[in-house]
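Why this split exists: single-chain examples teach little about how molecules sit against one another. For that reason, every record in the complexes split bundles all components of an assembly together and asks for one structure covering all of them. Below is a record exactly as it appears in the raw files.
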Amino acid sequence: MMKVKALVLTGFGLNCDNETAHALTLAGAEADKVHINDLVNKNVLVKDYKILAFGGGFSWGDEHGAGVLQAIRMKTHFGEDLQKFVEQDNLIIGICNGFQTLVNIGLLPGFDTKSMERKVALINNDHGNFIDDWIYLNAEKGSNCVFTKGLETFELPIRHGQGKLYTDDETLKKIEENNQAVLRYSSKEGKKAENKFPENPNGSLNDIAGLCDSTGRVFGLMPHPEAFVHWTHHPQWTVMKQKMKKNNQDLFDSGIPDGLKIFINAVDYFS
Amino acid sequence: MIYRLETALKSSLKDPEGENLRKKAKDYFNIELEKVRTINVLLFDLPISETEFEFVSKEIFSNPVTEIYSFSNIDEDFDFCIRVGFRPGVCDTAGNTAVEAISDILSKQFPKDSGVYTGKRYCIKGKDLSMEKMDLLASELLANDTVQSWNIYSKDFVSKNGFPKDLIPKVILNHEPEVLEIKFSSDEELNKISNERNLALNPNDVPVIREYFFDEKVILKRKEFNLSNPTDLELEFIAQARSDHCNHNTFQGKFYYKDKDTGEEFVIDNLFKTCIKEPTIKLKNELDWVVSVLWDNAGSAVFDDTYNYTITGETHNSPSNMEAYGGSLTGIVGVYRDPLGTGLGSKLIMGSYGFCTGLRDYSGELKPKLHPRRLLDGIIEGVKDGGNKSGVPTTFGQVYFDNRYIGKCLVYVTALGLMPKEVNNKPCHEKETSPGELIVMCGGRVGKDGIHGVTASSETFSENTPAGHVQIGDPYTQKKMHDFLLEARDLGLMTFITDNGGGGLSSSIGESARLSGGCVVNLEKVPLKYEGLDPWEIWISESQERMTAAVTKENIDKFLSLSAKHEVESTVIGEYTDSGMLHVKWNEDTIAYVDIDLPEKGFPQWIFEAEWSSPKSRGMIEPVITSPKDYNSLCLKLISSPNMSSKKWITRQYDHEVQGTSVIKPLTGVNRNVPSDASVIRPNLESEKGLLFTQTINPGFSDIDTDNMTRLVVDEAFRRLVVTGADPEKIGGVDNFCWPAITYDEKTNPDGKLKAAKLVRSCLALKDICLEYKVPLLSGKDSMYVDGHLKGPYGETRKVSAPESLQFSATGIMDDCKKAVTSGFKFSGDRIYLLGKTLDELGGSEFYSLLNEKGVNIPKVDQKTNLEIYKKYFNANQKDLVNSGKSLGKGGLFTALAFSSIAGGFGAEIYLDKVLNDKSLEDFKILFSESSGRILVSVSNENIEEFENLMGSSSCCHIGFVREDKNFIVNSGSDKIINLSVDDLESAFEKRFGELV
């Protein structure tokens, strides 16, 4: 069987390309790392792929707003290709800087794929600083998001300085009514973070950590699923390993880390 | 045409930057501000139309969801307004990316002298504010006068006069580049010139330079190119190459050592050769995993069958001391170019930091250039932006406070890379330049940045040190270059690569051309940030983010077009030759023509007198202390001391998980707040092989004896790696010495001989322990002159020397990273063991320092015994017998127990009578001694027999067990001398810096 082809963006300060491609490969895709200018110069075409990954990093050094300059570059040179790509039943995932880029392109919240309007912003964390830590997330039940299927309460790392999701009341209401707020920061038990630090690490409105568009095929999130695809990624893995060993079980043979599930959902969509 | 744009967050949105200023004004200076709002100012000096300007303002520079924008001043009320902008020529990445974006969206190329300049305007409201208070906030919190300028306007002023026009900080030099011929007839004159031109030539070098230029053969050769007296560029070339920073004259020096107590005397001819090179070569010949050491930008060692790893460590003390943010940012970004410029280039895989500053709450009467709190804030932020934006995980770090660092702070930065063993069937760790290959400069452009940086760091910081050598690195440009160069490497497009750091092109070309045997450089081809630089300035400028590569003529087109794809500027600026000469041209004129190996020719060795006297003969004593009664308070106090308490706020600002390689993170435990002994990464995502890393520093021991200090830091680094799971036979090290000036001078450095003796003792100890532990020194650096002259309250200045500091970094390998061990207790009921002996060794301990004592009983390192313990522990872990492991360091047994308890979330029950010790030590000595070689281990009951058999009784004692609850109890006989809850310990550990984010 042909493997599902995935394109992972590189260049201009992006820095999670390697592990994002690795995660997609683990999930069963054939992942290519492609420099943004190879798309600009049409050496590579988006339409030859099924999954497009906007990865993490500091594109253009995060100057003038995280993801802003990357979004401009893409909109200018192949904005229409992206629109078509979504319409043709393909998938886009934007992680961290990629999420910031998707909201600036206007593919998210993407009430209407035609308009590509900026409706949502990801701005400085309320505490004003970059933070690397692990947080709990709750996946929205009843959403049509392809990527979060089967996920409930789970953990991922966050690593950002500009992750506070902000929008006007009307847009927020619409996002929530459409079940597009697919990931929210939560307590360990899966209760609402209620905008409290550190459960909600950045002050995001209504604890929103990730969005999908109205089709469920474009997905953006601040946490890093590609950084939890191996059990040793988890901060407590040495404890988990010993505990399972006590019960004659092997952590490394005990199922799929939650970050990897997101990529598997994407690849499985095409089978 | 000049356009001006202001943007700001909508007033309904919180302004974290403004809020941060409000908080700091209160916390640092007790100035109450009601409200602060930040406004971004952009000045466009671009040939675009008004319509185009309005278009880009809307599309690029303002966000419709969150921001408002205006072409005049945004209407935000204030009592005072502070405008901050960069000084001319300071790196403004936001400005540069703006030009890039506008050029792309409008499909327009702009002339070289156009630009976008960014600045900020802070609108401040509050009662009882004054110009003076605002100036304090501006100078202490918002701007640093070496790189930024500011203006303060009151509401009154603005309502009467409006805002004055912004100044465009464009560099206009109005200077016609010129080359000076330097005439001198005597050594005296040359010395004078050296002082006037800030060359920092060593007076002993001057006769050699004079003899060279007065040599008839040389005169004849030079005449061919119309040269007679040396040019300014030639003298700068010699000065750079001979500087202590590049040439390590101190370590290459000759030391006359004398022990005043015993009368013993000996001479060490070249510390570097004797103590670092010799043992490392010996170990390289013995160990098959050491690949390349002692010559390249970083050392390399075997990681697995496919890859080698590379490592080096640097310091960036002087620049950080003056401009904390820019200095440390440039430091981390700079050290990242070292692995990138090692062999044919390695990918960056991790970085680490070590900061030594005065206490955050320092309130002494001597005034450092920057208060330690501000200095540390800036350093933290610089390494954050440099590391995070480079996409390199910062997996380890340490901070050490001592008020003697107010003279000069220390900023250590370490970088690791990974390179394939072979690219295109050639070993990747080898490189050379050959005649006919082109010299290519890649990356940023050249400006006046950092001129005389190398020579300035070879001098003691004084009021007169020029601030011009401070600069701000640009990780964005460098990341693009990193990606480009690795792709070029894999395509086999380069034969040589090195970085442009200290000394700029002068060093990178000077050194690389020694391999081929000469070069011709067309200096006028070097792309500049602005016109008007003299050739000598271009030659030695330390403008950042540049590498020098050698590319063959047949590959050059491919190389340049790949560079263009990555939007990295690459320029051919010359050619390697085998003429034996450094030949620099400016258009048609020859402006330098000297032997390429001139810097290596017959310069005299530096000579040092070193005089040692033992701590006791220096009047130091062991303090007389009886057993404390209130251990609970003592323990809480100790764990909350500046050097022990949690630095989580720093660690969390650094991305330690990017690249998806994280296995053991810098912080561990149920609440992810306890420092790990070592970090582990899995740099090859396809494999389970782990790379371990740790660092140690303990300058507190140096006051007693640097011999012990050195052995202790090496032993502790080695032990931390083994505890975490490293194979003890594959551990490599990196030494980073930071020492005060050691040249004796009756007036200016009266204890120079002792400081020199301390350096000799440290180096000899390093050699000895590295040979015994079989730790090759994969890389290392020294930074001398960590002294400062600070203003006192009466108009005097006083010299403050930092303690002799050696940061030791160590790397290790584990075949299966899934065997890594963390320090937290795992199960209630587990047995707690202490490996190693506890002795009466509290000299230099954290406990003594809490009591303001020093002591003389410094821990000794029993190298043989320790190694045996480490090997046994390694075997026990290979058999999965170890549930937790913690190396004992600062704060001794108590701290290790506390950390394992906090990390595990379990209490412990400990019996001090069971602790293996020499004589019957008092309880406080058992708890707080810092004897080396000890490890705290917890073991499940089903494994205790096997574990005990493996360890043997001579070095292993069962001292207690993990409790089910959170009570932390230490018994001495029938007395519970410590009875605390783990939560109390944890909050004491967290509280000092707990408010900081």
